[in-house]
Amino acid sequence: MSRGRFITFEGGEGAGKSTQARLLAEVLRERGHEVVLTREPGGSPGGERIRALVVSGDAADWSAMTETLLMFAARDDHLNAVIRPALAAGKWVVCDRFSDSTRAYQGAAGGVDPAFVESLDSAVVGADQPDLTLIFDLPAERGLSRALARGAAETRFEGKGGAFHDRLAEAFRTIAAAHPDRCRLIDADGDVETVAARVRAAVETAGL
User: Fold this and answer.
1) Bridge partners of 94?
2) How far from chain centre, in Å, is Cα 208?
3) Rounded distance, CA 85 to CA 88, Å?
4) Domain for residue 34, yes or no?
5) pTM, entire model
6) Which whole-number Å values give the CA distances from 148 to 38, 58, 96, 187, in the listed order?
7) Most-buried pick from 51, 86, 90, 164 (CB within 10 A)?
């Protein structure tokens, strides 16, 4: 059996990637693929317990280094419990956030040494990198406004301030430019169907 495909969705707060990940999973199922729709941090029982620590509470509760270690602990559980078995079974995995979020949030925006982040990624993720990463690009102020308007309980990262989110948006653009074979930058400004069409076009262009 051939290995499945692994697609990750990335971007700042309020960019709409969670909605678009769900819509892409529906399209892929309509095309006959078995699809696992999942998220980070979380996606597995152990990962979800760590998520509860990381995304709720006050913005100052954890340092960026502590966040990095927690994110990779959750990722290790997620990979072993969900992602690797699904890919081995020939399923497609659509994941809302993955390692690029750690590179952007804790690395570029949070100040953790990028070399340290990469060393953890090499140890935890190894060869199981995404086949395609869709990075949702939206002005930080607009995305943050959207995120805060949702009124969700998980607002810890939204509370890190405008300067942090500006650095975050730039970090994601830098990641997209540095990995053109894997990453596609998606203009996230538009209604749901317009952005969904951009996502489908990016997947088709990637030849998956």
Assistant:
1) 7, 37
2) 19
3) 5
4) yes
5) 0.91
6) 23, 15, 19, 20
7) 51
Helices 17-30 and 192-205: crossing angle, nearest 10°? 60
Cβ-contact 128, 87 below 8 angstroms: yes
- The helix/strand/coil state of 36 is strand
Q: Which domain holds residue 57?
A: 6-205
CA atoms within 13 A on the CB side of 41: 24
Q: Which two tokens stand for residue 18?
A: 């969670």
User: Tokens 């953790």 correspond to what residue?
Assistant: 112
In this structure, is residue 45 part of a structural domain?
A: yes
CA atoms within 13 A on the CB side of 15: 24
| H/E element, 51 | helix 45-54
What is the domain-level CATH number for residue 164? 3.40.50.300
Number of domains in the chain: 1
CB burial readout 47-68, b (16+ within 10 A) else e: beebbebbbeeeeeebeeeebb
Question: Order of strands, edge to edge, in the sheet holding 92-96?
Answer: 35-39, 92-96, 6-11, 132-137, 183-187
Q: What is the distance between the alpha carbons of residues 89 and 79, in angstroms, rounded to a whole number?
A: 14
Residue 1 domain-assigned?
no
Query: Is residue 174 included in any domain, yes or no?
Result: yes
- Burial level of 81, CB count in 10 A (0-12/13-18/19+)? middle
Distance CA 106, CA 200 (A): 29
* pLDDT, mean of each 10-residue run, the chain (208 residues): 93 87 97 97 96 84 94 98 98 98 95 97 98 91 68 65 86 95 93 95 87
